[in-house]
Write a structure and sequence with these properties.
Number of strands: 6
CATH superfamily of the largest domain: HAD superfamily/HAD-like
Distance between the termini: 18 Å
Helix content: 40-55%
Strand content: 5-15%
Largest sheet: 6 strands, parallel
Strand order of the largest sheet: 3-2-1-4-5-6
Order of helices and strands: HEHHHHHEHEHHEHEEH
């Protein structure tokens, strides 16, 4: 059973004082669930074939990823675009960089959107969440509707969920982490953020003084980050001894 965050802090407050953290922030796609690398590369295979491009699906995926992350970095606050809009525009821009266009790129992005709703969840994530007795907020660069659908699909429970659509910005922008801290009533110094991206998760949380744990997934999508985490995990359950 999970308690609302502030109630959990009141009930467990005394024993939490002996722990290094009072709350946990955790990424979803690539951390709790499998990342979308395979789904993206499958779509890229169809894009490459449809446009007769002379590069591999992985090469196109990396090129698209560079454009996508660049657009995400420019789509915060007053310039906010949803993740779906960023996927669509970055695909158009990537194709244009190879000298081709597509009158219906939505058909490709729709395949990735289907993945967002029902990604496979890592077994170590299920084990970790079942053993966690601290307030936890899921913080994700995601559109709200597909993320909530994925959480419900797999029967997961969090004390709070904050998406980029809620915050109108994307990790590593500090505001999304500030919104998550507020949802838990937590302070940066007493919070741990766990994620699979050195760029989005480690880089963003570190800016606020939040401790970071990087889950080193083998099959994650191309990472443009170089930030150093406080902890490196082979599995999410590796961090349990520290939390206790």
């Amino acid at each position: 059973m999970r308690f609302p965050a502030r109630l959990a802090q009141r009930l467990f407050g005394e024993c939490m004082s002996d722990r290094p953290f009072d709350g946990i922030l955790i990424d979803f796609y690539g951390t709790i669930s499998d990342g979308d690398r395979d789904a993206v590369e499958a779509v890229c295979g169809r894009v490459v074939k449809a446009h007769g491009l002379t590069l591999s699906p992985r090469e196109f995926a990396e090129a698209w990823g560079e454009v996508f992350f660049g657009l995400l970095g420019r789509s915060n606050h007053h310039a906010f675009k949803t993740l779906y809009q960023c996927e669509l525009q970055s695909l158009r821009d990537t194709l244009a960089s190879f000298g081709t266009g597509d009158g219906n790129p939505q058909r490709f992005v729709a395949e990735i959107e289907k993945y967002w709703v029902d990604p496979p969840v890592h077994h170590d994530a299920l084990d970790f969440l079942s053993r966690l007795d601290l307030p936890v907020c899921c913080v994700s660069n995601a559109d709200t509707e597909p993320l909530l659908a994925a959480i419900e699909k797999h029967g997961l429970r969090f004390d709070a969920v904050v998406t980029s659509q809620d915050a109108r910005c994307y990790k590593p922008d500090p505001h999304i982490f500030e919104k998550a801290l507020g949802a838990l009533g937590a302070t940066p110094q007493r919070t741990l953020h766990i994620g699979d991206s050195l760029h989005s998760d480690v880089g963003g949380a570190s800016k606020l003084g939040i401790s970071t744990a990087w889950i080193r997934r083998e099959n994650r999508i191309h990472d443009i980050g170089t930030s150093r985490p406080d902890h490196i995990l082979g599995a999410l359950t590796d961090i349990i001894p520290l939390l206790r």
